[in-house]
Amino acid sequence: MSALTDLLAFQRETEALAQVMGRLGWDQETVMPKGAAEQRSDEMGALESVLHARRTDPRVGEWLDNAEATTEAEAAQLRLIRRGYERAMKVPADLATALARTTSLAQGIWARARAADDVAHFLPTLEEVVNLRRQEAAALAGSDGTLYDALLDDYEPGMSGDEIAALFDRMRPRLVALRERVLGQGTPPKGLTGAFPEDRQLALAHEVAGVFGYDFLHGRIDQAVHPFSSGSGKDVRITTRVDEGEPLGCLYSTIHEVGHATYEQNIDDAYGLTALGQGVSMGVHESQSRIYENQLGRSAPFTGWLFNRMRAHFDDIGLHDQAAFHAAVNRVNAGFIRTEADEVHYNLHIMLRFDLERALISGDLAVADLEAAWNDRFEADFGVKVDRPSHGMLQDVHWSVGLFGYFPTYSLGNVYAGCLNEAMRRDIPDLDAHLAEGDPSAATFWLRERLQRHGGLRPPRETIMEATGGEISEAPLLDYLDAKFAAIYGV
């Protein structure tokens, strides 16, 4: 057998084990008994120890030195396996195990603290998570690198914190100006009223997930504190959450997670359980969830169709025409919760988190001072005082599980989605007519063929540029937002 054959067979087993670990994470957030948290942390730590040993196995280095690619896909696999091997070799095994064990426990501690609005209960654990991630960052960065960039590279390879900061500096003035114009219009659009039972919300969520192409033969929808998507290939699961007073949260979190899930489901079957068999980066992943949720799901044509489905499921929703429903779905307000934020405010939420987590990792902000820093920044950016921790620093799961460097990929996903939407509408001039019939398949097919099926074949920036045929810029996103909200609010 050749070195390439041996390497790819070994990698396939490693990928399979990683999927098993992901399934344990899904179980922990959905159906695991609360009393199992400590045992689960030991299980996660043990499995991470096995995975780390495989990822640093000396044979991987030998195979990489001797393997020869004959196709584009083989060359891409070697590139990604080498990158993973070199990063894994820099992280001590005991540190990798400690991170897996600690973040598994931390997730449950965060959930309890969030439910009780008790920051003090969470801070010691967060301190430990930050310390471990800083150790990992130092190992990865070496003497020449930056701690935050080393972590960001896990989620968006090739991107730097300075590039993100420059992007945000360009975006912020137009976002703030748009917000001021919209909020200066006075009375906001009317919201939904009525009865929205859990079973009917979930029934509509399942219906809309199917409309957007989610394959239930290889997936399922469950509930979790924080909606997420998990898995790849033939087993891709999503979660949502239900508030019986506010059905749009369930509906649009479902559409968002379906964007993630269909990306994974639509990757070429030949790439299953290989280094190419998952989304290439979190920024590219977010481009799929955000374009499904916003440019498609919140568009006037699609909300026109959805208005009728809402009334079929819930009878009276307090709104009596499609235009009023479209305005309600896209209502702009300076709310506390990122996952419920409108498109005008969403990136401002991300900018806050990016600056705070970058300061945490660099050591410029102490964990003990995080709540005050969050509250001060939120009031400065949104003009509203945070009323309780679950509306502030405790609202997101990310820091409890060590995902430092993840947050900016949400805004990168929005930028990428803006570029994709511009190219897609150029190629499908009658897209709105399809959306008005509740049929986004022309768009989802375009995204599958242009981007999703390729998985990790190309680096993130190249993936977007190949799909759109142009350079990456924030301008399409900002132009889209200006035009959309000018039409809704008359500004």
Automatic annotation (TrEMBL):
Record carries keyword Metal-binding: yes
Alphabetized SUPFAM superfamilies for the sequence: Metalloproteases ('zincins'), catalytic domain
EC main group: hydrolase
Membrane-spanning intervals of the chain: none
InterPro entries, per database record: Peptidase_M32_Taq
Gene Ontology MF terms in the entry: carboxypeptidase activity
Catalytic activity: Release of a C-terminal amino acid with broad specificity, except for -Pro
Keyword Protease: yes
Enzyme Commission number, as recorded: 3.4.17.19
UniProt cross-references to CDD domains, sorted A to Z: M32_Taq
Keywords recorded for this protein, A-Z: Carboxypeptidase, Hydrolase, Metal-binding, Metalloprotease, Protease
Function comment: Broad specificity carboxypetidase that releases amino acids sequentially from the C-terminus, including neutral, aromatic, polar and basic residues.
PANTHER family attached to this UniProt entry: CARBOXYPEPTIDASE 1 (PTHR34217:SF1), METAL-DEPENDENT CARBOXYPEPTIDASE (PTHR34217)
Protein name: Metal-dependent carboxypeptidase
Species name: [Roseibacterium] beibuensis
